[in-house]
């Protein structure tokens, strides 16, 4: 296995280096698709650009630019961006990849276990459940979300990102691939994605540049108010009434808000 970690970077880039550090010793290549303009047409914040440049000097890191077509739906651009990373991984001779965002973290011992199991099973696509975090790195949402995130996947010469739902589980339509003839869903005790989706320096950038923002843009001020006032025990509207519980700061994340 020659494994590439394929990152998408536009905002929450203060988390990027920490995310990379968790998996750095267990991947062969790190590909970062960076945007100066979001899929909704907003320019990158200067501090996010600086955080991306911080990882330039790291061995294994390749940074490529993605330029979205603003005439297209954000989800279409997301698929094109993932395709760009997969194609770049192909050129580098990678046999497998996993797609990642700056706010994706894995516990190192779980990652090692899961990678070895992927080698043993030799399936096309693996998926994980996720823990999602809100406002603070110690505020976790319960119950877990009802969709899965792709993990390590095989790269074939004809691998492409598709919108069609050929998966047997609920997966974001912007991260499905084909060929995908064999699957494995990791059990929660094997590995979990820790998704610090709402733990960042600029929550406004998150809401305003989200792929689905066009559906609820009028609600953003209310979402930000809910975010600013959130505390343990609250039910979070943005996450369909999931409850905030307190957990350890597993990755020692420190955000300057």
Secondary-structure topology with pairs:
Elements: E1 3-9, H1 16-23, E2 29-34, H2 46-53, E3 61-65, H3 74-91, E4 96-101, E5 104-105, H4 108-121, E6 125-128, E7 130-134, E8 139-142, E9 149-154, E10 160-162, E11 176-178, E12 183-185, E13 193-198, H5 203-209, H6 213-216, H7 220-229, E14 235-236, E15 242-246
Identify the notable features of this structure and list them briefly.
3-stranded mixed β-sheet, 15 strands, 257 residues, Spore Coat Polysaccharide Biosynthesis Protein SpsA, Chain A, alpha/beta, 7 helices, 7-stranded mixed β-sheet
Describe the structure.
The protein is built from seven helices and 15 strands. With 257 residues, it is of the alpha/beta class. It has a single domain, classed as Spore Coat Polysaccharide Biosynthesis Protein SpsA, Chain A (Alpha-Beta Complex), CATH 3.90.550. A seven-stranded mixed β-sheet has the order 3-2-1-4-9-6-12, with helices on both faces. Helix 5 (203-209) packs antiparallel against helix 7 (220-229). It is globular and about 45 Å long. The mean pLDDT is 93.
As for the number of domains, it is 1
How far from one another are the termini? Answer: 40 Å
Q: State the CATH architecture.
A: Alpha-Beta Complex
CATH fold-level assignment: Spore Coat Polysaccharide Biosynthesis Protein SpsA, Chain A
Radius of gyration: 17 Å
Number of strands: 15
Largest sheet: 7 strands, mixed
What structural class should be given to the helix and strand makeup? Answer: alpha/beta
Under CATH at level 1, the class stands as Alpha Beta
| Spatial shape | globular
Strand content: 25-35%
**SSE string:** EHEHEHEEHEEEEEEEEHHHEE
Number of helices: 7
Strand adjacency order, main sheet? 3-2-1-4-9-6-12
Poorly predicted residue ranges: none
What percentage of residues falls in helices of 4 or more residues?
25-40%
Mean pLDDT equals 93
């Amino acid at each position: 296995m020659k494994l590439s970690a394929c990152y998408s970077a536009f905002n929450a880039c203060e988390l990027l280096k920490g995310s990379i550090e968790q998996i750095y010793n267990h991947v062969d290549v790190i590909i970062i698709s960076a945007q100066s303009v979001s899929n909704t047409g907003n320019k990158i914040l200067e501090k996010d650009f600086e955080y991306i440049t911080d990882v330039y000097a790291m061995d294994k890191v390749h940074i490529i630019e993605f330029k979205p077509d603003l005439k297209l739906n954000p989800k279409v651009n997301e698929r094109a961006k993932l395709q760009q990373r997969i194609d770049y991984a192909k050129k580098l001779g990678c046999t497998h990849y996993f797609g990642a965002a700056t706010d994706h973290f894995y516990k190192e011992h779980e990652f090692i276990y899961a990678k070895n199991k992927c080698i043993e099973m030799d399936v096309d696509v693996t998926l994980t459940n996720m823990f999602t975090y809100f406002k603070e790195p110690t505020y976790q949402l319960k119950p877990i979300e009802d969709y899965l995130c792709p993990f390590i996947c095989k790269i074939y010469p004809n691998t492409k990102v598709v919108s069609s739902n050929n998966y047997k589980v609920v997966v974001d339509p912007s991260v499905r691939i084909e060929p995908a003839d064999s699957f494995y869903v990791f059990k929660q005790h094997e590995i979990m994605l820790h998704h610090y989706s709402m733990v960042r320096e600029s929550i406004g950038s998150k809401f305003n540049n989200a792929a689905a923002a066009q559906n609820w843009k009028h609600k953003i001020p209310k979402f930000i108010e809910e975010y600013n006032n959130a505390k343990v025990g609250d039910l979070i509207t943005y996450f369909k009434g999931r409850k905030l519980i307190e957990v350890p700061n597993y990755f020692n994340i420190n955000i300057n808000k």
